[in-house]
Amino acid sequence: MKQFNYFDFANVLSEEEMMEIQDKLLSMSGKEMESYYKKLLEKGTCKSKNKKIECLDFLTYYIELRTQWNYFLMNHMDESVKAIYFEFDTLFRWSGEFSSCSQYSSLVHKNDDWALDSICNQAEAPSFELLAIVYNGCCDKCLGGLNNKKVLIALTISIFKQVVEMNNPGIPVCIHYKYQDPLFRLFDDKQY
Predict the structure, then answer these.
(1) How far is it, in rounded angstroms, from Cα 38 to Cα 128?
(2) pTM, whole model, 2 decimals?
């Protein structure tokens, strides 16, 4: 019997799909990105899976995420913080964690070791258990090639970008799901 390998299961996006999401992050607002990926769902051919996704309460998740984000910024920011990243776990209740870091390296350097090597503070972010259940019950691809898991990851990222747009700390902010590399940058480095 093959042993369960979390890394193999969590690493569901191809390099091209990750680049697509990163490009959307840099070229669209969070709301535009959310709308783009929801329209992909409407065009998809896995209607039963898409109905489950459409029924997810992203508004409540947005409110909880915004509340925890604001709390994190109020309690864990000081002059030593150079970047923040948000990590969510696609397999375990879609739970999340905010981390402030004393270092940052731009996307062009293709090295995200700074994120783990320079953590100053961490705080729990809200989970979205129903999203994790839908995600883990999804087929990777349905007829027509739509990657449902990519859409769920992209929707999570777009929701977080909307939260940060409402209260931007003025330093680089990144997001990733557990074991993903590289981290997604929410905004172009030139902004900072």
Answers:
(1) 18
(2) 0.87
- Cβ-Cβ contacts under 8 Å for 96 (sequence gap 6 or more): 65, 86, 87, 88, 89, 124, 125, 126, 127
CB 73 within 8 A of CB 169: yes
The answer to whether 134 touches 172, Cβ cutoff 8 Å, is no
Residue 70 DSSP one-character state: H
Distance of alpha carbon 170 from alpha carbon 187, whole angstroms:
10
Q: Consecutive 10-residue runs of the chain (192 residues): their mean pLDDT?
A: 45 83 95 92 64 82 97 94 94 92 87 85 94 77 63 93 96 90 87 72
Q: Cis check for the bond before 172: say yes or no (omega within 30 of 0).
A: no
CA quadruple 4, 90, 21, 170: dihedral positive or negative?
negative
